[in-house]
């Protein structure tokens, strides 16, 4: 969220409402895993269909070839269009495909990005696609470039952390924004850390003349003061 | 300046109702849109998200609002096409227009493909030994046996419907796959498409010329004439799409290479999808009509010629008419693409920078 350009997978994008969304781009490993899961699903379907349809002679063979064709070329297209941009493999990895502007993927974009898998495969084993993804910050493969699509992580719902209930306190001298944030973040996460670790962290900023258990409480009180949480007197 | 807690209290109800809207697992019918207040609600939350970021409220709150905005954005700007209507419009207009607009490349593709096909056919007609430098001898023997006019071959004799269906599946699987690859391999400067067009032209021409020379011409041509226009036309169109893909990279004009690729993306998808439809029609004809027996040779050739005439009309007359109509109606439309924001631009995400210049002005409390 900082304005300095860090090496990360966040792609800033401004919506028409004028707020900046940070799309979290999925990298090569997550996408390869999703692809592998999809491959397994497809092969499983093909084998199952072959076993089932081989009972029906020529008619069965014709339907089997049609099914193979659909699975080979249109499996990702159908899932991306009917399942909010996620094939089963992507869903398992928590990914989805969206347009470059964060909107839901369109039919023509989905068709183009999936037909061009052939180009991504060349010269062998998806070399073109892998090189293209590694060279770009938004880790798009060739098909994504032409169709203007992105593979992003689905925004996960976080449980709102509870600030520990403390009597609000004001700091003795004004704190700058970074310091305020650090204090609030510490208080929000203090129930996830062990007591010793909390004290260790608190020792960095809290006054030295306090006993260690009190330091943690003191910082939590400051955070309560900063966020404006009122507590009933104990 | 409101403290975070009061801010949360003030807007909690709005956030909960928006989260409910987003949680409705709407299928593509989009439940959220039936909720009349959704766009308003979403825009309010956008503003609150910007405020929360600006005022440096805690990370967890900002993340929660960010998630709502991201999901809301996706739902609000979702394009939900009405599939059936779109398909009719695609066949009736869009595909024809895409063909007319790419007429030059389709001509190039046709010259490459039909040129190599006809030249090889004539060459093999008069110098039949040539075929052995193009195809392996086993394959030549197979073709000879297939089009055997004595009726011992697999063609020209009665097949049952069972086999017809099997062949239909095979034709779709094989031919559409080849067409798609013809398109995709054009990504490498168009060379892949040119290569596939030429090799397919060579081998088809060689077989035709060789069979013609060895007296099986009538059986062969009466079999292939019916579906020839659809199948060869589709391969040429995919070849043209592949050439366009290559050209977009080689000659991007006044755009960046990526932009020029994206600029052509929609027409490419139309050309390739249309070709797939043509190939399905070709497979239907090939499996259920070409294999029929008992129609006179001349009648079959007429049916084949009609196919070519229809394609020519569809592209050159129908496509041209609708293309001019569309371009007249498009003159008044202006397209302003949404630009991608560079990370450190003037926007709401910028509190970090400002806080360094005047650190004490951004207090959470009235100090």
Automatic annotation (TrEMBL), chain B:
Residues 337-367 are annotated as: Disordered. Residues 353-367 have a biased composition (Basic and acidic residues). Keywords: Membrane, Transmembrane, Transmembrane helix. The chain crosses the membrane at residues 106-127, 187-212, 232-251, 271-291, 297-317. It comes from the Bacteria. It holds the Pfam family SpoIIM. This is Stage II sporulation protein M. It comes from Pelagibaculum spongiae.
